[in-house]
Amino acid sequence: MFDVKEIKKDFPVLQQEINGKPVAYLDSAASSQVPLQVVDAMSQYYATSHSNVHRGVHTLGERATSAYENAREKVARFVNAPLPQNIVFTRGTTEAINLVAYAYGLHKLQEGDGIIVTLVEHHSNLVPWQQIAKLKGAKLYMVELTEEGHLDMEQYQAFLKQGNIKIVAVTQASNVLGTITPVKEIIQAAHAVGAVVVVDAAQSAPHLKIDVQDLDADFLAVSGHKMLGPTGIGFLYGKGKLLDAMEPFQLGGSMIGLVDYYESNWAEVPARFEAGTPNIVGAVGLAAAVDYLTDLGMDNVRKHEEELLAYAWNRLAKVEGVEMYGPREPRTGLIAFNLDDTHPHDVSTVLDAEGVAVRAGHHCAQPLHKWLKAAATNRASFYIYNDEQDIDRLVSALQKVKEMFGYVTR
Ligand code: PMP
């Protein structure tokens, strides 16, 4: 059903040798690889249809506009948004969340209001809220974790009872622990007190079927480059009535209705939030990535990752000195770990020499690392083109690290 060998053929980057070894790419949580279908769609666009969008009345302008707007429709269908107008193209998750923070938070919040975030947030869904809270004199509440590493839902409920919570910003999947959070329950509880919810779906959209209407999410942010698309493109989903009532985030061309000497008014949504020339080819690439994932079927993607995760978890658990972080379930296909007290940068350097690519560092989640009492971790993350061999390569490369740093003598 899920033929990784066939899938790998679409990814020439994975067919090369790195440091004389075939590459085992286990860093898709940072950026996934891009299939030929996406590369081809982008080069086809440049070869046949490129121009600026929404303005020219010439044929190439119309082709570019329809490629861009078709991409919006595909993305809308992918997350089950009611209309394409619910989708605002952005540079990625970071820009999408900043858009909400500045175009919604800055205008709606008042002194003494509350914003709830969680301890597992990527800095992208934390720092903008810290800043908005500071600018508006609002209070930031951070939901911490239970001993097992799940969000402390009792603490969340207690924060909601403060009576002044206006925004809840939560990730659907942690980029360090992989933990899938109970977003639907979080949204229901937030709505019961009149708060809006911003969902960071950077680590969930590539791996899980997302239905914004079923979740009843107010805003949801996604990056294209973690779901087989190019860098520099992502999107914000927003409920129509919220987006319609929002002031623009960036100002300039394409987002205006009428500009007079001393004042201007704004275009309709989503143009209002897409100032300047957009990343047209990026949107075309993202649409091709959505097609690729849709053809595979998101349920199949999830199943494949669950199988790989189970295999990797069992294998890593048997490597003496490996500490894996976070609860086993529910999680996406990634594992953050440390090996004895070898620094993650040393571990990943040795792994790289073996052709195994993992990420090392705090993964833009310093508060979570503080809670884990680890300055840094290694993170191995899996996607559609990974198989058990990649995990085996990781495990044998870890044995090399142990030999090199003196934990194993021969
Ligand atoms: N949130 C999460 C959970 C992430 O993993 C990332 C990417 N590491 C981001 C936000 C930021 O995404 P981007 O850099 O594409 O804006």
Automatic annotation (TrEMBL):
<protein>
    <recommendedName>
        <fullName>cysteine desulfurase</fullName>
        <ecNumber>2.8.1.7</ecNumber>
    </recommendedName>
</protein>
<dbReference type="InterPro" id="IPR016454">
    <property type="entry name" value="Cysteine_dSase"/>
</dbReference>
<dbReference type="InterPro" id="IPR010970">
    <property type="entry name" value="Cys_dSase_SufS"/>
</dbReference>
<dbReference type="InterPro" id="IPR000192">
    <property type="entry name" value="Aminotrans_V_dom"/>
</dbReference>
<dbReference type="InterPro" id="IPR015424">
    <property type="entry name" value="PyrdxlP-dep_Trfase"/>
</dbReference>
<dbReference type="InterPro" id="IPR015422">
    <property type="entry name" value="PyrdxlP-dep_Trfase_small"/>
</dbReference>
<feature type="domain" description="Aminotransferase class V">
    <location>
        <begin position="25"/>
        <end position="394"/>
    </location>
</feature>
<comment type="similarity">
    <text>Belongs to the class-V pyridoxal-phosphate-dependent aminotransferase family. Csd subfamily.</text>
</comment>
<keyword id="KW-0808">Transferase</keyword>
<dbReference type="GO" id="GO:0031071">
    <property type="term" value="F:cysteine desulfurase activity"/>
</dbReference>
<dbReference type="InterPro" id="IPR015421">
    <property type="entry name" value="PyrdxlP-dep_Trfase_major"/>
</dbReference>
<keyword id="KW-0663">Pyridoxal phosphate</keyword>
<dbReference type="Pfam" id="PF00266">
    <property type="entry name" value="Aminotran_5"/>
</dbReference>
